[in-house]
Amino acid sequence: MERTSLVTTSYISKVFGTGDTEMVALSGLDLDVHHGEFLSLLGPSGCGKSTALNIMGGLLTPSAGEISFDGRPLTEPSRDIGMMFQQAVMFPWRTTLQNVLLPVEVFGENKKEYIPKARELLGMVGIDEFENSYPWQLSGGMQQRAALCRVLLSDPKLLLLDEPFGALDEFTRESMNQELLRLQAYSGSTAVLVTHNINEAVFMSDRVAVMSARPGRLVGILDVPFDRPRTPDLQTTPEFVQLVAEARRMLELA
Ligand SMILES: Nc1ncnc2c1ncn2[C@@H]1O[C@H](COP(=O)(O)OP(=O)(O)OP(=O)(O)O)[C@@H](O)[C@H]1O
């Protein structure tokens, strides 16, 4: 894998509020996200993972430090950065296909040109039969599948995933994670996943960035050497269990 960086955060901090309400959410986060890798941000609840991700998406400005994306300072959201959150934002009056095509419409591009790709992506996640259904006719997992198709439609260089399947049951979550890995490999995009699930972080990632409790700072980076594609039985191997234990130790020592 190429080791050049798509995202570089140089000692970024984020402070919310002022005076008595001032709260340091992130403290001096120094992190490189390499081209093509799958990196997880792992840390306890409230340690600033989402804040870091929102800064990488250009949605928040750091209070101190610098962030660059694709060799340039990042100051605003970019079409090359796709974001996905725990709740799929699906417009109830639009069909699945229309929801997937929404960003293309918003950016004033020719929707028709993107229809074959949208259908291909819907087929890859197994919901092509539902392209004319409305969100209320889909399960939560199907809605997140559609949201994944939407974010991949414009081939973002960077995928930012904030616990995208956190609201789903364990079984659906596992199969969605598999879909995500398959589609990330297919699209060749770089991915950053926020999670507080150690197992999930190790299973999904090439590297796990372990963060301390608030104010979040980087405790260390764990390399995950397992081959891809990965299958769920990897999680029962001694090597996997050992890496999970190591990540847990890093979290406990933080
Ligand atoms: N817009 C905001 N205004 C004020 N405080 C905020 C804001 N966004 C986040 N915070 C605070 O910053 C801290 C870090 O929040 P953040 O959501 O980044 O953590 P997290 O690690 O993603 O948490 P979780 O895993 O529970 O989602 C929290 O204490 C949160 O309350």
Description:
This protein has 254 residues and is an alpha/beta fold. The protein is built from eight helices and ten strands. A six-stranded mixed sheet has the order 6-7-8-3-9-10, with helices on both faces. Helix 5 (140-152) packs parallel to helix 6 (170-187) and helix 7 (198-204) crosses helix 8. The mean pLDDT is 94. Adenosine-5'-triphosphate binds next to strand 2 and helix 1. GO terms for molecular function: ATP binding.
Task: Give a quick precis of the structure.
The chain has helices at residues 49-56, 96-100, 102-106, 111-124, 140-152, 170-187, 198-204, 238-253; strands spanning 5-16, 23-34, 38-42, 64-69, 72-73, 81-84, 158-162, 190-195, 207-211, 218-223.
What brief labels describe this structure?
8 helices; 34% helix; 254 residues; ABC_transporter_ATP-bind; ABC_transporter-like_CS; alpha/beta; nucleotide-binding; 25% strand; transport
SSE-based structural type: alpha/beta
Mean pLDDT across every amino acid position: 94
Alpha-carbon Rg, integer: 18 Å
Shape: globular
Strand % is 15-25%
Give start-end ranges of low-pLDDT stretches.
Answer: none
Number of helices: 8
Order the strands across the largest sheet as they lie in space.
6-7-8-3-9-10
Q: Give the H and E element order.
A: EEEHEEEHHHHEHEHEEH
Bound molecules: adenosine-5'-triphosphate
Largest sheet: 6 strands, mixed
Report the helical percentage. Answer: 25-40%
